């Protein structure tokens, strides 16, 4: 930017004033010096004549773009200046220069303030213009809506007037005996049933009032709650919280509360919508209610409405119908999800009868299911229901991993607790043929205590039990208590004690383990108990030869006489009414009594019983009931026998544990205890024992300890 005056488009005499920053710059001072020298070079005698003088012209304003960096950034203010004539030889004094600079700076400040003021004025004008446009648009809209409403009501009034005129003309025609020539029956009937204008207004007002009642109640409750909270500083539950709690409790306690609430809301919507339509339409109340139902059922039906009032009412009803339909979809979806979730988690009821019910879960479940499948094979399969406190999917997955053939037997799993009567009823416990209660793995006393509580729950079923109960116990000392609670319905099996006794028998007689496996399993021959009425009043010696395909080995006394089982009774025992015969047979349908065969007489052969010899038995490991096993071995073995105990329990602690278990060393008459400390898994520990001197060796695992 230079100091040279820049002529405006209107006049070459008008100048543009520089910015204040440019006035204080070095270039501005250089230009002042240049003009000073130029004016000094003018001759003194050269004077402008009066005729050369031109009258002063008014200044003009030139708009300068704000983007131009060489001009003043704000709006440029232009002012008129007089042309100064310098005489030759005159020089500008320093004071004049200061005055010129001060005047230029003052003019620049005034121009800046004027530009800011012009910007504010422009913004105010733009805001006022936008406000007036909006107000004009709103006014036009209000006028249009008012005209439409006025037109609607005027047309409605005209229709009513025309209907009144038609009814009057019909009356006149009837009076003039011209009724037969004009078929206006339908018109007369419609005119009679047309509601009055006041009744329609009342219906519209009532619908609006009923619709506003919930909002008024809500505001009132909120106001009361706030006023109570301000008046009372103590912790008092507000009224709106109490109402919310009551509604929540009602929806949670009553199973059909949600569908009932939805039904009531739908009926209220139909009734309010029908009243509102009755107030804005010419139809009857029944037709309006039906039309309201169509709007609720199908939100697209409101497209056929004509007129502002009917359209607003139909749109509101359709919107409420969409909300109602969304709530109904939510309820149906939740109900379906809950049903599938209950099926997945095993909460549904088992509708079966004559099935086998297993309560609990343990490692013995696999072998138990296998034997039940073999036993049910002759019946074409059976139903086994397993209920335990596990997830249904986990139980089904574990059963599917069992590698044996179920032979047509179906296994149904349910998740529940055998201590809850409701869960027991869910698996049809009263219709079960047999109930098996499995012992839990872990502490023996806790397992037996849980089994006792399960028996108490079973005996508390009101419908009664059809089958018998078999309870697995872990400790022999708890058997008496369980039998006392279960009375005649319960049969106990102390698996730990039975397995220990079988191990002692198998250790003394090699090959006996295979016999026990065949008899106690269902793969070959097994025990069966059945009543045969044709054998009543028969001696047991005759019963022994009455079964060609079975071996009788005992009698189960009738329940009226105790229900005990007598193994190998005397030959003179006479079967009474109600007694059952215990036999060993291949299957329950493979044997039956036949006629007594002819027995040939033979000479009696007397057998000589060999004397018992002392034995040496090695027991590796430690069991919780090892004291009971020692007592059994002392009864079976001959005097002078030795029992070597080889385990990791310290020798000084063994005697204390045996005494705590109830063993009396003074009552051991046939065996002598020999203690050795070591681990049966380590070879060098076993080599320290005289293994070749032992008659039998038994080892216990940690699972039996």
From TrEMBL:
A Pfam family it matches? Slo-like_RCK
Keywords assigned by UniProt, alphabetized = Ion channel, Ion transport, Membrane, Nucleus, Transmembrane, Transmembrane helix, Transport
Where the protein is mainly located, per its record? nucleus
State the species of origin.
Rubroshorea leprosula
Q: What's this protein's name?
A: RCK N-terminal domain-containing protein
Q: Which residues form the RCK N-terminal domain?
A: 353-494
Where is the protein found, in the record's own terms? Nucleus membrane
Q: Where is this region: Disordered?
A: 41-65
What InterPro entries does the database record attribute to this sequence?
CASTOR/POLLUX/SYM8-like (IPR044849), CASTOR/POLLUX/SYM8_dom (IPR010420), NAD(P)-bd_dom_sf (IPR036291), RCK_N (IPR003148)
Cross-referenced PROSITE patterns: RCK_N
């Amino acid at each position: 930017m230079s100091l040279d005056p820049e002529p405006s488009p209107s006049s070459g005499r008008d100048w543009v004033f520089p910015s204040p920053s440019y006035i204080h710059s070095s270039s501005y001072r250089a230009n002042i010096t240049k003009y000073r020298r130029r004016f000094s070079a003018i001759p003194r005698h050269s004077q402008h004549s009066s005729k050369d003088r031109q009258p002063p012209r008014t200044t003009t304003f030139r708009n300068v773009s704000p983007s131009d960096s060489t001009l003043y950034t704000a709006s440029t203010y232009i002012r008129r200046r007089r042309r100064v004539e310098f005489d030759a030889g005159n020089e500008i004094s320093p004071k004049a220069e200061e005055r010129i600079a001060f005047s230029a700076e003052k003019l620049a400040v005034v121009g800046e303030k004027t530009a800011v003021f012009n910007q504010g004025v422009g913004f105010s004008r733009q805001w006022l213009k936008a406000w007036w446009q909006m107000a004009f648009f709103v006014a036009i809209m209000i006028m249009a809506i008012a005209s439409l409403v006025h037109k609607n009501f005027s047309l409605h009034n005209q229709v009513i007037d025309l209907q009144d005129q038609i009814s009057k003309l019909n009356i006149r025609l009837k009076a003039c005996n011209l009724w037969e020539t004009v078929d206006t029956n339908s018109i007369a009937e419609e005119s009679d049933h047309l509601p009055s204008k006041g009744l329609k207004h009342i219906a519209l007002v009532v619908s609006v009032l009923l619709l506003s009642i919930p909002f008024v109640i809500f505001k009132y409750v909120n106001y009361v709650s706030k006023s109570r909270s301000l008046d009372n500083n103590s912790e008092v539950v507000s009224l709106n919280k109490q109402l919310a709690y009551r509604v929540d409790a009602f929806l949670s306690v009553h199973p059909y509360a949600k569908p009932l609430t939805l039904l009531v809301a739908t009926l209220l919507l139909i009734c309010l919508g029908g009243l509102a339509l009755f107030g804005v339409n010419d139809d009857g109340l029944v037709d309006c209610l039906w039309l309201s139902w169509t709007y609720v059922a199908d939100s697209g039906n409101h497209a056929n409405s004509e007129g502002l009032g009917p359209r607003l009412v139909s749109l509101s009803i359709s919107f409420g119908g969409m909300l109602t339909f969304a709530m109904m979809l939510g309820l149906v979806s939740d109900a379906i999800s809950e049903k599938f979730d209950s099926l997945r988690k095993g909460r549904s009821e088992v509708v079966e009868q004559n099935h086998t019910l297993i309560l609990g879960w343990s490692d013995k479940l696999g072998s138990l299911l296998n034997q039940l499948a073999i036993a049910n094979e002759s019946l074409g399969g059976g139903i086994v229901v397993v209920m335990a406190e596990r997830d249904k999917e986990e139980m089904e997955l574990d059963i599917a991993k069992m590698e044996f053939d179920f032979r047509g037997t179906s296994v149904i799993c349910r998740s529940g607790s055998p201590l809850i009567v409701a869960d027991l009823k869910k698996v049809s416990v009263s219709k079960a043929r047999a109930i098996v209660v499995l012992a839990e793995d872990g502490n023996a006393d806790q397992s037996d205590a849980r089994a006792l509580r399960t028996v108490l729950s079973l005996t508390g079923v009101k419908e009664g039990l059809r089958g018998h109960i078999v309870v697995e116990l872990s400790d022999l000392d708890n058997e008496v208590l369980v039998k006392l609670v279960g009375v005649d319905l319960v049969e106990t099996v102390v698996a730990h004690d039975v397995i220990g006794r079988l191990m002692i028998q198998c250790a003394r007689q090699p090959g006996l383990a295979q016999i026990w496996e065949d008899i106690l399993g269902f793969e070959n021959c097994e025990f069966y108990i059945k009543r045969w009425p044709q054998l009543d009043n028969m001696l047991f010696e005759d019963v022994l030869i009455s079964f060609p395909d079975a071996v009788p080995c005992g009698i189960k006394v009738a329940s009226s006489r105790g229900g005990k089982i007598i193994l190998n009774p005397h030959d003179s025992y006479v079967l009474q009414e109600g007694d059952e015969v215990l036999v060993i047979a291949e299957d329950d349908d493979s044997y039956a009594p036949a006629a007594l065969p002819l027995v040939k007489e033979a000479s009696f052969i007397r057998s000589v019983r060999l004397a018992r010899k002392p034995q040496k038995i090695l027991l590796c490991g430690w069991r919780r009931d090892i004291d009971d096993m020692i007592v059994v071995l002392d009864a079976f073995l001959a005097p002078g026998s030795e029992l070597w105990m080889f385990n990791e329990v310290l020798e000084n602690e063994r005697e204390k544990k045996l005494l705590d278990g109830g063993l009396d060393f003074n009552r051991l008459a046939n065996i002598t205890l020999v203690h050795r400390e070591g681990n049966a898994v380590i070879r060098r520990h076993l080599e320290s024992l005289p293994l070749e001197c032992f008659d039998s060796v038994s080892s216990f695992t940690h699972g039996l300890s």
